[in-house]
User: Fold this.
Amino acid sequence: MRNRTRDYIILLAVAAILTLPNLGAVSLWDMDEGVNAQAAREMREADTWVIPTFNYQLRTAKPVMLYWLQRASYAAFGVNEWSARLPSVLASWLIVLMIYELARQMFGRSTGLLAGVVLASVSHFSFLAHAATPDATLLMYTCLTYLAFWTFHRNNSRAWWVPTAAACGLAMLTKGPVGVALPGVVFFLYFAWNRELGRLLDRRFFLASVVFIFVAIPWYALVASETRGEWLAAFFGNENVNRFLSPMEGHRGGPWFYPVAIFVLFAPWTAFLIGAVWYGAKATRSTQTGEGEMGRGGDTETNSEGVRPYRFLVCWAVAYLVFFSAAATKLPNYVFPVYPALAILTARFIIRWRDGELTVPQWMMPAAAAGLVVNGLIVVGGMLFAERLFPGLGIWALLGLAPAAGGIAMAWYLRKGDRNAAVVAVSVAAIAFVSVLVAWVPGVVERQRAPRDLVRATGLSDPTREFRIASYAWFEPSVVFYTGREVGRLDSPSAVRDFLAIPTPGYLFVAGNVWDEIATATPGPYRVLARKYDFLKRCEVVVVTNTPSADVAVK
Assistant:
């Protein structure tokens, strides 16, 4: 118990270092962060726990769980970026602890501790832990599902049905059918691989179904009733079926989209990923292999019981990878649930090598060290190249020294034969690299984000004033959040003219090049109040008002 407490403290400290610094410093990232943060705010203002809205119109893209958590965060800490992102931060902490417990049950304390460190310091995991999106919350309930299953399914126990059903119900409230369908696929594949499909024919399935319905369905029934089925039809029809069958919002990709994305976004631990996947897959076989197929190397974890954790992790990773690769709409975030399985496989591979249980080819670990150095050089080159787009980013090229130093230190300790020190050096380098990357580098990009600065410069966040807001040829959801008002979406130059002609004070957000085209044909009075370049839409954004005065430029 004392060791577990110490491990929890270490992992929570690592997670805090990787998630808390500068959490609220950067403005909400459009599209998703702005929509989610504002939807929770509108539910709070309307004092409803059922109907989600955005821009004061029904929002059907996601279920309600994240909004509930954000609303609770707003109540405790106020309505701001920090509060909007806090649920994802806390979810990421719980995920790290759950993966520690799962890996500890599977392989022991050392693997559990390293698995938590690996997952927390995966760059994409840390980025999404900072985001006001449902990804971290969904992964929390997904990991809870798999931890409950693994804890209670052993020795032919039936006790896993009810807790996994409850966890799936919470996942269903977070992001819909994927929260229950994909765990079901994982369980099916796992039992089929072990020739135990009969364990799915269990009367506890009906009790589990009741628990799932009790947890997940009441909200769906309420929102269906209060919107007369509109929410359900839009969510299941458009956000699930149509999104799977056809690419939406231009998010498309080929069959290699997710393997490539994982290889890039799993950095800096990508250097160990090939070995982790190879030896993890190899360990799923139930016979002693003796010589490794990648070179000489014994494998001592291939007895009939030792293969089960590996098979479960492989089923976990493959189910999500195949499903989302088959979907027409592709986004890197969709395979977020693959990372915990890969983190455990990576940690197990490294620990087995460290402890001498696995003999890998002589080139493999030096190649991993070299991969870390290459990772650092790519960061250096990428930052220097991006300096042309984001002035001030070039200085952060020095950040590439962290993974490079980790690779050099690993190579040094490999020569000395100190494998434990090599693992520690890589872990420290990964934590240092990712913590700075996610906390400070976005601040440079923030300088070319328009919504928050324009709202602040024009005083449109003042709740005591009476005015109207609209947009034309440019719209970002965070404008709604920062103004705290409905933003009308105008669809033509004539609508712009009508909007500005109404005597009530009005403020129009419009793409600068579009305004230049229609300004001469737009009768006054009006003035350009502020302007700023927005890199997401690659245009200057202009704020026009129908109250006369001097122009203001926002830097």
